[in-house]
Structure formats: structure tokens, C-alpha cells
Amino acid sequence: MILTVTPNPSLDRTYEVPALDRGEVVRATGERMDPGGKGVNVSRAVAAAGVRTLAVLPLGGAPGALVARLLHEQGIEVSPVPVSGRTRSNIAVAEPDGTLTKINAPGPELTPAESESLLDAVGAHSAHADWIACCGSLPRGLAPSWYAELVARCHAAGARIALDTSGPALLAALAERPDVVKPNAEELAGAVGRPLATVGDAVEAAEELRARGARAVLASLGADGQLLVDAGGTHFASARVDVVRSNVGAGDSSLAGFLIAGGSGPRALASAVAHGAAAVQLPGSAMPTPADLSPDAVTGTTGIPLDRPLTEPA
């Protein structure tokens, strides 16, 4: 069972449009509504693969009730922590060329009592989890050290932790030695405080995060592929993608694929890349099922192309 923690979940509405013309009336050609937040997306991808998952998250107001209902409809177990504020609602606008415009609401401010209740809820279920995926930004009211506290408590209970966050929250948690951290190129550059222009730069940055406490680093490099740097060495994999429809949740799908495949080594990296590549070819924040995956499109190597320039330097 994979348990996910989403401190700042959302109700996500995605609209597909022919073009986004500022100041004009734009008619959508497609729309969908999904429960959102990085940990929620991981649970959705895990459930789509037929693996049991439990989502722990603070929920409030009518949007929160709708998030819980949508998760249940997707076969996801939910452990809601009631909060006084309303769960946020986000909007994404997707254009045919893959350009995505997102408007993310700030979300509620959690009280100290609600923060502690969220930690307690994770602890209550941690003994039954093969992995605990802690994902996303922290809502107002939670200090940057909140994830570090969560990692420490879960490790004390014997659980393995995958952490997907950024900024001060990521840096604070490294001291507690999360089992894997999953930054994208921009987050990786922010964590080490310098730009990344090549795959080699990303490898060096990932090694620095390991030196600061992370046991493994799974780094998404967008269209260039993904890196896994751990005690067993450095591995690189990429996949062919014909059409990009939406990259919402693609990184979360990658993390789900990595954990489903055991959470370590080249096999798990290949699963992460296959899940991410499948996700970007689906509309909105739809998560891939096994039928959507193309494992044969994934190419993995230990011969890292260190000099390859990143398509999108960070």
C-alpha cells in the first residue's frame, strides 16, 4: 500500500482551448474536474495501476467534500483531516501546442491543532504503508520544518519516505534523510542555488542533495528524461513522446510509477519515465492506466550524456 500526504489539496478544473486570447471570450473544446494536489495525483496514478493507496489530506468546505467524493469514485481510500478553511479550487487552461496556464489559489490557513492532527493521521496509518509519499507545497500555517517533522516521525515508525517538494521545505527535510526526493530541474537548481544548463549539471546537483541527506534523488528533466542518483550509482532514462496534451500531474505520475516498481534501481526509473511520458499525452490531469503505458519507448543507460544541453535550462 502506498500512502500519500497532500498538505494543500485542491479541486482542479482544466479547460482545453484552441488558443488563450487575453481579454477575449474563449470557448473551451473540452473540460474536466479532478481532485488535485501532488500527493492526490500520486494516489490517482497508483490507483489507476491497480495498486492500493490511501490519501491523507486536510479537507474543508464544499470543495473539500467534492475532492473526497471524487477520490472515492476512483477507488482511493481517504483519511480526511477536517479543517475550518475551504479547500482551494485551481484552474488550468491547456492549449493545443501543450502550453499550460495555471491559476492556483492559496488555500486555507491551517491552525496549530490542525497541523498536529494531520501529522497524527499520517502516523496512524504509517505502519501499513510500503511507501509514504509526501508531496506538494505547504499551506499557510505550516512552517518549512513541517515536512522534516513528518519524515522524522515516519522514519521512527519504520516507514520509507518519498518527498516531492521544493524551496525551504525541501532543504529543511534533507537533514532527516528522506529515502528519495523528487525535484524537477527548476526545483533542483533552486535547491543548490545555481543554474543547470546540462545533464551533467543536474547530476552534480543531485549528488549535492545526497551529500546533504537525501538517500536517493529522482530528478525530472522534462523532455530530456529523468535521472536517478543513489548509492548504486547514476542512471538516466528517457522516452519518446509524440504529442504533448498536458503536463499537469506528469511528475506525480512519474513518482507513482517509481514507487509501484519498488522505489529503487533502473527498473523503477524506467517505470517512472514510462508513467510520466504516458501522462503528458493525456488531457488535463488524467492519470495513465497500464493500457496507456509504452515501456518499449523508454531508453535507459548508465552512460550518462553529461554534456547534453537541457532543452529547458533551469
Structural write-up:
Its EC number is 2.7.1.56. One of its GO terms (molecular function) is ATP binding. Keywords: ATP-binding, Kinase, Nucleotide-binding, Transferase. It is an enzyme of class 2 (transferase). By secondary structure, the protein is of the alpha/beta class. The protein has a single domain, classed as UDP-N-acetylmuramoyl-L-alanine:D-glutamate ligase, CATH 3.40.1190. It has 9 helices and 14 strands. The strands form 3 sheets. Strands 5-4-1-8-9-10 form a 6-stranded parallel sheet, with helices on both faces. Strand 8 (131-135), helix 4 and strand 9 (161-164) form a beta-alpha-beta unit. The two termini are 34 Å apart.
Rg on CA atoms, Å: 18 Å
Strand numbers in spatial order across the main sheet? 5-4-1-8-9-10
Strand content: 15-25%
What fold name stands as the CATH topology?
A: UDP-N-acetylmuramoyl-L-alanine:D-glutamate ligase
What is the CATH homology-level superfamily? Ribokinase
What class do helices, strands and sheet pairing give? alpha/beta
Distance between the termini: 34 Å
Poorly predicted parts: none
CATH class assignment: Alpha Beta
Write the layout of secondary structure elements.
Elements: E1 2-5, E2 10-16, E3 30-36, H1 38-48, E4 53-59, H2 61-73, E5 77-82, E6 88-94, E7 100-103, H3 112-125, E8 131-135, H4 146-156, E9 161-164, H5 167-174, E10 180-181, H6 185-192, H7 199-211, E11 217-220, E12 226-230, E13 233-239, H8 250-260, H9 265-279, E14 298-301
Parallel strand pairs: 1-4, 1-8, 2-6, 4-5, 8-9, 9-10
Antiparallel strand pairs: 2-3, 6-7, 11-12, 12-13, 13-14
EC number: 2.7.1.56
Family: Belongs to the carbohydrate kinase PfkB family.
GO biological process, one term: carbohydrate catabolic process
